[in-house]
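Lab notebook, design round three. We kept the backbone fixed and only want residue identities now. Task for the bench partner: fill in a sequence for the structure below.
Input structure tokens:
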């Protein structure tokens, strides 16, 4: 599903909600003044940077784009200052309470794994606390993790966390959506379980006390799957009134929903110790890169807006510089094929697919392969807590409109990047970003690093402390 620009009228209520215009209520609403002196200084630069990504066709589109930037700024204001490892391990001032909700809201949903989707048995992906089956030939900590496995993965980690403060609701809403996706059932059936879990919560004093503001849901699919509109798929869970106050952690957020927080797609790598991370970092920095560019994906001939066919044509035309792995014939079903391709490549092309974000972006980053982004909604307007605001440090941006209209040859453009530039970017990715993009083993013990779970958890506490 593509992300179309929203009009001014569509975002107006959200604009008022977060105080997009100068307002005295910012601190009260979000624990931070989102309009600061620094904000005014950088406003011009932000707009210019933004215009490099998408050229708004009219005033309403420009307004919508500015709103996206503002929502991200609010989310970054919640980033915890607890960046020292010793502080992040302490329970002082933070924690999580896990509801013991009826199993029909989580574990029971995994029982139907055999026929959850028509083309594969999902049961194999639910082994090892949701990590899936081990991939022995990739080494320690590698698993066949499904792209929608975020819910059981974070549930297992939270259960083993020693601290208690905010409220985590272990509702597997993503699997609730997935189990009905390929079945002919009514919208009432699709919405039933989500409505029931909110009814269950509504009877709890802990929910009533702050109207759910200190509650967190982890939903392992994209936001649009919980905002059923004109399409028949998905549920309307995130459009329910009771879901407007809680924080929602998703693999892809709604750009105009400030309580939608995007966190990394689960990769195949789930390290358990510092050594697992450092040994992989050393391997990725020293690994010879035989391909300048690679693309693992399939064409989308039925989608007139897709640039994939153009990228495939350009890649195959420069076969000495670019390697194409065709996912349409099943070549990407084995994680080993994808990871080994990315390990061998300097740049990994990451065009949008069914939606703007891609698990493949994170697979490429942990493999030391520089992602080439064609849509800012793929990464730049998503992961405020895990990816830096300076996108040039870890990625290359090429406007998908330029590719579609044949104004740029992607291979030729990437060939202009010097070895020194590539090495600098890869070093930053591997040493600074990689540890915070992986979800460690359920029993992980890190002394030197904070993984994606730690970063998410600390920032959630910061958010809740400021708002409640």
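Proposed sequence:
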């Amino acid at each position: 599903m593509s992300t179309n620009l929203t009009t001014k009228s569509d975002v107006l209520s959200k604009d008022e909600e977060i105080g997009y215009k100068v307002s005295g209520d910012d601190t009260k609403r979000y624990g931070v003044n989102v309009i600061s002196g620094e904000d005014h200084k950088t406003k011009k630069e932000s707009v210019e940077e933004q215009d490099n990504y998408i050229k708004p066709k009219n005033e309403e589109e420009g307004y919508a784009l500015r709103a996206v930037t503002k929502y991200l700024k609010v989310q970054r204001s919640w980033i915890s200052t607890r960046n020292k490892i010793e502080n992040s391990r302490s329970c002082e001032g933070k924690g999580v309470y896990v509801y013991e909700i009826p199993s029909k809201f989580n574990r029971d949903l995994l029982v139907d794994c055999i026929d959850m989707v028509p083309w594969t048995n999902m049961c194999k992906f639910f082994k090892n606390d949701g990590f899936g089956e081990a991939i022995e030939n990739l080494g320690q900590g590698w698993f066949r993790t499904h792209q929608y496995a975020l819910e059981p993965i974070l549930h297992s980690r939270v259960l083993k966390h020693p601290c208690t403060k905010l409220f985590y609701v272990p509702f597997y809403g993503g699997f609730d959506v997935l189990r009905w996706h390929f079945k002919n059932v009514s919208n009432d059936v699709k919405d039933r379980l989500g409505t029931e879990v909110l009814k269950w919560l509504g009877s709890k004093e802990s929910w009533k006390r702050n109207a759910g503001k200190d509650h967190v849901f982890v939903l392992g699919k994209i936001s649009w799957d919980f905002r059923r509109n004109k399409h028949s798929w998905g549920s309307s869970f995130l459009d329910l009134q009771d879901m407007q106050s809680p924080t929602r952690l998703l693999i892809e957020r709604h750009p105009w929903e400030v309580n939608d927080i995007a966190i990394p797609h689960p990769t195949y790598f789930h390290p358990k110790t510092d050594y697992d991370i450092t040994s992989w970092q050393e391997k990725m920095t020293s690994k010879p890169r035989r391909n300048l560019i690679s693309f693992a994906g399939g064409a989308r001939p039925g989608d007139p807006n897709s640039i994939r066919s153009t990228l495939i044509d350009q890649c195959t035309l420069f076969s000495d510089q670019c390697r194409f792995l065709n996912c349409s014939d099943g070549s990407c079903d084995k994680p080993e094929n994808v990871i080994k391709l990315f390990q061998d490549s300097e740049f990994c092309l990451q065009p949008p697919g069914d939606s703007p974000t891609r698990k493949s972006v994170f697979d490429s980053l942990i493999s030391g392969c520089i992602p080439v982004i064609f849509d800012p909604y793929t990464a730049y307007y998503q992961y405020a807590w895990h990816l830096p605001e300076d996108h040039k440090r870890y990625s290359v941006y090429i406007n998908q409109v330029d590719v579609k209209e044949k104004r740029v040859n992607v291979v030729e453009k990437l060939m202009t990047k010097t070895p020194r530039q590539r090495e600098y970017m890869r070093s930053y990715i591997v040493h600074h970003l990689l540890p915070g993009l992986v979800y460690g083993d359920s029993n992980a013990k890190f002394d030197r690093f904070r993984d994606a779970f730690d970063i998410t958890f600390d920032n959630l506490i910061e958010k809740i402390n400021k708002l409640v």
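Keep this in mind before ordering anything: The chain is about 40% helix and 10% strand.
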